[in-house]
Input
Amino acid sequence: MQALRPALLAHPKLRHLDLSGCALSDDGAGALAALLQSVASRRAQEAWVRGLRAHEAPGAADGAGRGLLSINLAENEVGMW
Output
């Protein structure tokens, strides 16, 4: 999961993440949730340092400041038991 962190930070315009069929378990999903929260928090802090607010950020109207919009977790073992 930690390998995803640099990739998510390096691609702030990424809107869809496909993790289907990658043997993700409940534990992995928890780690993914923590990772996504950490990335979102870091992006918010960076925006704050630049003096921006999410609703005032340049490009916010076209979704440029939103981050991920969807994650595909199909064909994994998340919530199976």
Summary: The chain is about 40% helix and 5% strand. The radius of gyration is 14 Å.
